[in-house]
Specification:
- It contains 6 helices and 6 strands, in the order αααααβββαβββ.
- With about 220 residues, it is α+β, with helices and mostly antiparallel strands.
- A 6-stranded antiparallel β-sheet has the order 1-2-3-4-5-6, covered by helices on one side.
- The N terminus is likely disordered.
Length: about 220
């Protein structure tokens, strides 16, 4: 259908703009009816388009969270230790956090990826340091931990050690402590605490194992 006058962009606007002209011309009633029908069809078409658009956005909204959730699962990284035997031997449930972190670093160290690795050598010594202590570890050419010498100072004592010392030496203060670990892949592992106790002008040194047994 073609429209007269200045061909408005929207039939709805044309209908309202021609209303005054139609009231003056009674013969234009049929034209108003046709124009109204066209306007209703136009509105219906626009409504259908909006419904499809809203439905499309709703489907996209449901799809995006699912996609994001899959990406999040793919980004998860699991660190696997290569030296299970070493970790099992030196693991102390009540040990302080810095001790556990450095021992885990020793177990997961990538020897073959280091700058100094060469196939010609069968034994490597690597030192690990943190403010609370250090570990000297010996590796074979495959990156397996053969033995370690570990020493930590100023760490939190296990409850069993602290309870045993305070029970045996009431009134004494623990002024210094050292946690010593010696690991050997064939001879086993030893763990002990060296403590210095003070009571006024008196000073003594004691040793215990990780369970609080005096050595």
């Amino acid at each position: 259908m073609s429209y007269t006058r200045d061909s408005p962009k929207s039939p709805i606007k044309h209908c309202f703009s021609d209303n005054y002209h139609i009231n003056k011309n009674p013969n234009s009633v049929s034209y108003l009816t046709k124009l109204t029908v066209v306007s209703i069809k136009y509105v219906t078409q626009k409504f259908n388009v909006m419904k499809k658009l809203i439905l499309g956005l709703f489907v996209i909204g449901l799809t995006i969270p699912t996609f994001a959730q899959k990406v999040e699962r793919l980004e998860e990284v699991i660190v696997i230790a290569t030296n299970y035997k070493y970790l099992n031997e030196v693991n102390e449930e009540a040990a302080d956090v810095p001790v556990k972190l450095l021992e885990k670093k020793v177990a997961t160290y990538d020897l073959k990826g280091s700058d100094f690795y060469q196939d010609d050598y069968d034994l490597y010594y690597v030192s690990f340091y943190i403010p609370e202590g250090k570990i000297l570890a010996a590796y074979d050419k495959d990156g397996n931990v053969l033995r370690t010498i570990e020493k930590f100072k100023g760490t939190n004592l296990p409850p069993a050690v602290y309870a045993a010392v305070t029970a045996r030496f009431p009134g004494w203060a623990i002024t210094k402590d050292a946690y010593l670990v010696n690991y050997h892949n064939k001879k086993g592992t030893t763990k002990k605490y060296k403590l210095r106790l003070e009571n006024g002008d008196k000073m003594i040194k004691v040793k215990t194992d990780e369970d609080g047994n005096f050595l």
